[in-house]
Amino acid sequence: MAQIAYVNGRYRPLRGEAVALEDRGYQFADGVYEVIKVLGGRFCDLKRHLDRLQRSLAALEIAPPMTRRALTSVLGETLRRNRLREALVYLQISRGTAPRNHVFPKRPRPSVVVTARRPAFPSPSEREQGVGVISMPDLRWGRCDIKSISLLPNVLARQSAAAAGCREAWLIDSEGQVTEGSASNAYIVDGSGRLITHPLCERILGGVTRSVVLELAQDDGIEVVERPFTLDEAYQAREAALSSTSSWLLPVTAIDGRPVSNGMPGHVVRRLMARYAAYLGVA
Ligand code: PMP
Fold first, then answer.
1. Residue 62 — left, alpha, or beta (φ > 0 → left; ψ -120 to 50 → alpha)?
2. Which residues are bridge partners to 33 per DSSP?
3. Can you spell out the DSSP letters for 76-123?
4. Is 56 in the pocket of ligand 1 (CB under 6 A)?
């Protein structure tokens, strides 16, 4: 069955040509996106994703192209047309199409694209054995809190990780601190069982999964500390983990080829993985 995408008011084959050459998303990466998980035909954490979308749009001064209600029905209809009950739904909004000029067009009409694809969630072995990450310099801009489609430093870091046989690249700022992964948030657990992750600020994306995981940890009596941690602390950590919509919560068991602790997932992260699965209703 052909995959179907929503493009500016029409449902059309994903592989067709649809976006204008002068779309500012294509020319300037002038746009934002969301990736939303669907399980059992249900959008997970839709409100949190739409709230973040609204913040990203506002930060770039792109007027919301439709109401939340209309957007929600487009998301649902795209899912339905692709006949998927489990999916990753991708939503992208650019500032729209205009003759190429860095300055915003006078009357922009944002472009909206939605696709729904069969997800490649982590394998049982990744969940049971954990995954490896490599460290890379964080070369991104100063507003990583905006979920912008401008992802070149993330793409390059992730490619280096893939070339090294790793799942993810952890990005290191000029002070030697781990900000986050190229497409996920980063955590360590210290010797006292505290879950440590970078605080929300302009240097990281506030992950939807991160917000859920921190709430679940607190509910479970795990102490959460939102502070930056260094790469050296991560090498010495008792446990480590990453989270994202598509990766869920995964144990990180090697950093730059060095095993984290004994190289196996630890009990804090395993407990949180179980809590997160229960939260999603798949436990
Ligand atoms: N940080 C970055 C840079 C990301 O690209 C992502 C994934 N979109 C995340 C964190 C995790 O965010 P979420 O849990 O909302 O998928």
1. beta
2. 92
3. HHHHHHTT-SSEEEEEEEE--B-SS-SSPPSS---EEEEEEE---PPP
4. no
Instruction: Name the closest-CA residue to atom 12, ligand 1.
Output: 207
Question: What is the 8-class DSSP label of residue 198?
Answer: P
CA dihedral 244→249→253→255, nearest 10 degrees, is: 20
Mutate-to-test residue for ligand 1 from 244, 245, 246, 247, highest number of ligand atoms within 8 A of CB:
244
Nearest Cα residue to atom 5 of ligand 1: 183
Do the Cβ atoms of 223 and 193 come closer than 8 Å? yes
> Which tens digits make up the pLDDT trace of 111-162?
999 999 999 999 999 999 999 999 999 999 999 999 999 999 999 999 999 9
Distance 206 CA to ligand 1 centre (A): 7
Pocket residue to mutate for ligand 1, from 205, 209, 210, 211, most atoms within 8 A of Cβ: 205
> Tokens 């969301």 map to which residue?
34
Q: Which atom of ligand 1 is nearest to the CA of 209?
A: 14
> Residues 22, 98: contact at Cβ < 8 Å?
yes
Check: CB of residue 87 under 8 Å from CB of residue 122. no
Pocket of ligand 1 contains residue 210 by CB under 6 Å:
yes
Report the C-alpha gap between 95 and 121 in whole angstroms. 31
Span 70-89, pLDDT tens digits? 999 999 999 999 999 999 99
- pLDDT (0 to 100) of residue 1: 66
- Side chain identity, residue 52: R
